[in-house]
Design goal:
Layout lengths: L6 E6 L8 E7 L4 H8 L3 E5 L4 H14 L5 E5 L4 H10 L3 E4 L3 H12 L4 E2 L3 H10 L1 H4 L6 H11 L4 H8 L3 H15 L4 H10 L4
Parallel strand pairs: 1-2, 1-3, 3-4, 4-5, 5-6
Helix pairs in contact: 2-3, 3-5, 7-9, 7-10, 8-9
Amino acid sequence: MEHDESIGAVVVGLPPVPASVTVLATVTAAELPAAVARLRPRLGIVDLDAGRDAGIVAISALADQIPDVPVLASSAGIAHATVLDAVRAGAAGYAAGADPHTIAELVDAVVEGRPAFSPGLAELVLDAVADPATTAAPPLSPRESDVLLLVVEGLTARQIAGRLVLSPRTVENHVQRLLRKFDVPGRGALVRYAIEHGLA
């Protein structure tokens, strides 16, 4: 994909960064949400080799607080539990290894709103989603719970935005994240899932 302009990103650790990305700041995991709020990049990149648990927490915090900025998680190798934890925390994609061409493609996909994974990882994530033992009612943030309850009540994104003092776009971002988290195709399925799992 040709780039007319580079993609601004806030980075945690030392992930491989393709030429299409301009690093606006390199921060610690704890600093990520504040840095993204300040700089408003198009992407966050979290190197989980720099601290797995702190990185997962940072991904979750960013996905909750600023859901319109996607996160690409990365690591040198593939640890299945780490990949799944990153996705459940809200990462939109996962890059394993340091192939610059592959990472550039993953960055493009994530920025365009598509999930993106290094070869072999998409199947891992889909298998885990298909296994109810590993995905029974993943935990929700307080904001996600608020949005989910109002979706179940039948409110529109605009009505939910008014109730929670958010922008409609932010509400839609939360809804899309809930759809991905529960692997359901739309709002009707989301409502059924919430009721069946005792979330509403």
